[in-house]
Specification:
This protein has 338 residues and is α/β, with parallel strands linked by helices. The protein folds into two domains: 20-194 and 229-255, NAD(P)-binding Rossmann-like Domain (Rossmann fold); 202-225 and 260-293 and 312-336, UDP-galactose 4-epimerase, domain 1 (Alpha-Beta Complex). Helices cover 37% and strands 18% of the residues. The protein has helices at residues 29-40, 60-65, 78-85, 109-128, 162-181, 202-212, 232-245, 263-274, 302-306, 315-330, and strands at residues 20-24, 44-49, 68-72, 90-93, 132-138, 184-190, 192-194, 216-219, 226-227, 229-231, 250-255, 261-262, 280-283, 296-297. α1 (29-40) packs across α7 (232-245), α3 (78-85) packs parallel to α4 and α6 packs across α8 (263-274). The N and C termini lie far apart (49 Å). It binds nicotinamide-adenine-dinucleotide.
Length: 338
């Protein structure tokens, strides 16, 4: 559990007018949806993104309108982070390697792009006197032995992936900058986030596999892996709602939906929605997709709900909604009977 450290008497910068936000990873899947919401409420946004997995087209309308500025830079480059931090009121730190599996092959990616990058962010905030940060953490910090649904105060957290370790380290750095240098932070542990503009993850992978070969769908593991899925607009609306409703020095929230769905069910939904009804679903076997994968995960969301926020989609509805949207985006043509 991450404790609240500073006394209640601590005072924060009150933002009574539109703010200037820095969104690291702003051209990414979740970042671009977050920027849509920030712009809609009147904020000015700087997106720091190296475009390694993000796409400028996701935020192009805001760039054209002048409400968002993109800085092509890397969060592992301290000077780039420092330059982007000038004049910022609040940082939304989302830039990271999004691929949990990558850690099985390249063992310093998450250390550099997660842990050290988060150090760069909080240290640049300290030097530029920026006080507020929201951080995209993950359910994987809880590891595989946590009770389900897992509440925020579960501990000790023992992540089993290198990605999870970097998220936990990021949380620790932020917590320490709150306790030592007076930052105010919101740490969000996300469930699996899915939706339009998705560029990775199980639904995206299944659609691409069926596009390449409509006769079969290979599923990693035995398909019984079961996790909760949250639609991306539910996620970004939840971030902004919780930030408006809470004001502790350190605010820790799970963001997820009410239930879970199995990988087997996701495969069935994607097969249905792509129209590849003859596809043979083949399981590679084993209880997990890859080393470091967590077979069963579900976040407790009572704390999120206690702020007056709830999701619009349950897991299965979010999966079907996402499958339909990504099939359009990826360009599978059902008429071609692929
Ligand atoms: P994404 O890949 O779409 O977004 C990451 C963005 O960061 C991309 O635009 C990428 O170009 C950028 N980026 C990556 N490395 C960078 C670097 N070194 N410097 C600058 N920019 C860099 O992934 P996403 O799913 O939108 O994830 C956003 C955040 O949410 C990540 O921190 C991720 O770990 C976290 N998260 C995502 C999920 C999920 O299910 N999608 C779940 C838990 C946590």
């Amino acid at each position: 559990m991450v404790p609240s450290i500073l006394p209640k008497t601590h005072t924060w910068v009150i933002l009574d007018s539109a703010m200037r936000a820095l969104v690291t990873g702003g051209a990414g899947f979740i970042g671009s949806h977050l920027i849509d919401r920030l712009v809609a409420r009147g904020d000015t946004v700087v997106a720091l993104d190296n475009l390694s997995s993000g796409k400028l087209e996701f935020i192009q309308s805001h760039l054209d309108a002048g409400t968002v500025t993109h800085i092509q830079g890397d969060v592992t480059d301290f000077n780039a982070v420092l330059g982007a931090m000038k004049g910022i009121d609040c940082v939304f730190h989302l830039a990271a390697n999004p691929d949990i599996r990558l850690g099985t092959r390249i063992t310093d990616t998450d250390l550099k792009q997660g842990t050290l990058a988060t150090y760069n962010i909080v240290e640049a905030m300290r030097r530029c006197e920026v006080k507020k940060i929201a951080f995209a953490s993950s359910s994987v910090v809880y590891g595989e032995d946590a009770p389900l649904p897992t509440p925020e105060n579960h501990g000790p957290c023992m992540p089993i992936s290198l990605y999870g370790a970097s998220k936990q380290a990021g949380e620790g750095l932020i917590s320490s900058w709150v306790g030592t240098f007076g930052l105010q932070a919101w740490i969000f542990r996300f469930a699996n986030i899915i939706g339009t503009r998705g560029t990775h993850g199980v639904i995206f992978d299944f659609i691409h596999k069926l596009k390449a070969d409509p006769s079969r769908l290979e599923v990693l593991g035995n398909g019984l892996q079961e996790k909760s899925y949250m639609e991306v607009e539910d996620c970004v609306n939840g971030i902004l709602h919780v930030m408006q409703q809470t004001d502790e020095p350190l605010n820790l929230f799970n963001l997820g939906s009410h239930d879970t769905a199995s990988v087997r069910r996701i495969a069935e939904i994607v097969v249905e929605e792509t129209g590849c009804h003859d596809a043979a679903i083949e399981y590679t076997g084993g209880d997990r997709g890859w080393a470091g994968d967590i077979p069963r995960a579900m976040l407790g969301i009572d704390k999120m709900m206690s702020t007056g926020y709830d999701v619009r989609f349950n897991s299965e509805a979010a999966i079907r909604h996402t499958a339909k949207a990504l099939i359009q985006e990826i360009g599978i043509n059902k008429e071609m009977n692929i």
